[in-house]
Amino acid sequence: MVKNELSAADKSYLLILARESITRAVRREPLPEIPLSSLSPDLQKVGASFVTLTQNGALRGCIGALEAYQPLVEDVREHAVAAAQEDYRFPPVQPIEVPGIRIEISRLTIPQMLEYSDAEDLIQKLHPGLDGVILRDGGRRATFLPQVWEQVPDPEEFLSHLCLKMGAGGNLWRQKKLGVQVYQVEEFHE
After folding, report:
1. What is the pLDDT of residues 101-152, one digit of tens each?
2. Which of 4, 18, 65, 100 is deepest in the core (most CB within 10 A)?
3. What is the pLDDT of residues 35-56, one digit of tens each?
4. Residue 74: which H helix or E strand, with range?
5. What confidence tier does 100 reach under pLDDT thresholds 50, 70, 90?
């Protein structure tokens, strides 16, 4: 869990900003201005986020950053638009779809290396439901947010699906030692 949680007002602001940004982007209108200096220090602070869009309970887009590189409020605006228009798994969201889209924002902690000795040790060190996981193999990497544990609660299956997402064989995590990082999120939604 994220140590310094955002206030209810900050969460509300980010959700409203994400919806307005998506609405304007799909209509090809300018994105909303962000009055950075008038926002809370938590929103001004550099932060990493993922924005997940669902429609009728099904994934409709999800894009984010694993490393913080801009103020959290700008990160959320950028990834809300990207989730709606740039997720390669889905066609861009159309204006008619926006009212049916539900928005979830995940604010990430800084990823930490997870040291482990072998596949069994890796399984033992994961915290299902709590850890987001990043796998790295050379230049390839993939992540699952902690929320993915709800659909894939078995750690072995979770890692196999993550290897497939990375473009590798599902058993790669058993066959060789991969770079593994974990992080937690503060998740909130409409």
Report:
1. 999 999 999 999 999 999 999 999 999 999 999 999 999 999 999 999 999 9
2. 18
3. 999 999 999 999 999 999 999 9
4. helix 72-85
5. very high
Please choose, from the candidates 148, 104, 111, 142, the residue with its C-alpha nearest in 3D space to the C-alpha of residue 129: 148
Tokens standing for 55? 């429609």
Residue whose structure tokens are 């994400």: 18
Apex CA 54: angle with CA 48 and CA 57, to 5°? 135
Task: List strands edge to edge, sheet with 179-183.
Answer: 112-113, 179-183, 132-137, 140-144
pLDDT confidence of 4, banded at 50, 70, 90? confident
Which amino acid, 106?
Answer: S
Cα separation of 94 and 85, whole Å? 9
Complete domains list, the chain, with CATH: 8-108 (3.30.700.20), 112-184 (3.30.1490.150)
